[in-house]
Hints:
By secondary structure, the chain is mainly beta. It is built from four helices and 68 strands.
Amino acid sequence: MPSKSEIRNPKSQILRLPFAGLASALGLALAALLLVSLGTAYARPLATLVTVTTTSDSGPDSLRDALVKAGDGDRVVFSLTANSLIVAVSELTVTTTSDSGTGSLREALVAASDGDTIVFSLTVNSIITVAVSELTVTTAITIDGSTAVSLTISGGGTTRVFSVTAPLHLIGLTVTGGAAAGAGGAGGGLYSTSAITLTGVTFLLNTAVGRGGGLYTEQTLAATASDFLTNTAGGGRGGGAYAEVGATLVDGLFLNNRTVGAFSGGGLGSSGTAVISGTRFISNTAGDAGGGLRVGSASLTGVLFFDNLAGSSGGGAFVSSGDSTLTDTQFIANRALTNGGGVRLGPGATVIGGAFLSNTAGSLGGGVFAANGLAFSGTVFTANSAATDGGGLYAVGGAVVGEGGLLRGNTAGDDGGGLTAFTGALLTNTQIISNSALGDGGGLQLEGGVGRFVNLVVARNTAGGAGAGLALATADEVVIVHVTIADAAANPGAAIAVQAGSVTLTNTLLAGHAIGIHLLGGAAVEDYTLYAATPITATGGVVLGAHSHSGNANFENAAAADYHLAAGSAATNAGVDAGIAFDFDGQARPFNGAFDIGADERYGPAEIYVYLPLVMR
């Protein structure tokens, strides 16, 4: 007889089992499921996590990159900030070198929208020649030529290559044979009204009748590892490139670019600020100013200017405005037909380290012409020449403020073999060695402004006029403290010529000159001076102090330009506390309780010398 439960639910008959049997069946089912699960887990490897760390549409660690890397069963996870947004960018692929038609670059430019990237599926060394008219870019896109090895886009010598009205990023291609003609024809390779970014791009053999032989933009240029080679601007600035608002360049090359006629910036031109690092400007020519570049202001780090030529000022570079900084930058063998063989700098310029070597000016400032003063630190000026004044450096309109550094082997056809300063000079720990001037001031000429010279080594300089070492013609005050002015042989000139103003000398070592202090005008007062191998200590009514004396300077090796004091020097312990706490090597004064005369403080036989700069070794 059926139970009540069976009557209420006839379907339960299929489940009718004794309790023990039901438990056994359920156990077997669970065991089977567990075995299947374990078998599956052991048979299949654990999923790989592929992590997205950037919102960029492409590149390393992007979502697009992760999708390429992920395999079956892998998990793509995200390590991003809250509310991150990844915008998918479409790619358009160029498959033909034809100038137009299906798969052409021209067709891709028409189809492209803001944010798109154009890539190339072409053979190595492919050339796309723009046959009829320039390629027009009207949307903010990237053209990535790195997907086709050694891709060239040519204007064929008859037309500009690119005309751009939206931000453009070019990558990994060469733009060549562009020609911009007609009224105001600027930008032979590329003309833009928007910002341009370049990565690994070369502009080669492009010409413009206006500005920007290779490239012209009304906005900014940002270029990394990009080269401008043998481009020409026939009617404006920027033989290689012109960027109106400013330029940021990293690790590039400007070689053999030029401007034709009275136009400036043979390599690069800009009215704005140029921020440049690791870039070389070589053998560029400007009909006017700035053989390598002409810009409004500049921040240069590790830049090389070599063998550039300017028809007027700034053989290597011309910087017109102020607040410019040059760090570890070299100017070598540049030429200017007027001023600033290496560089012409505007007001507020600072030079840190770096070197000016073998530059030539047809007038003023063989190495540097500073229009409104200059601050330098640890900079080397060597073998530069000026036809008139300032063989190494010429400064007007503001003081020269120098810390450390070396002026050596520079020549001037008139005054200031090493340096001419018209508006003051404040120099500390600087070496001025083996410079020459046909006029006054073989080492330095101060024409105006206040002078303060501390811990200088002024040695082996010659002048056809007054002052083999220093010629002081300023009407203002000059203070000389702990300065060594010497020559290894008998210099026929005066160590110091005072032509005007008021000069005070303390703890000064004058050696190897026919005259120590030659007073031609103004007034000079000295005390604690050592005159060594100087037959005439002073002329013209110099006021001599009671503590000055004659004796043997006994330098370590004057013939090798080592003007440290050796044992037995009459300068040792013969000075006075003049408020100078260190010598020109940076060693503390005094040693053993008494101050030495001159730039060096002798520390005895165990002294370790630190030459400033190291090229003095």
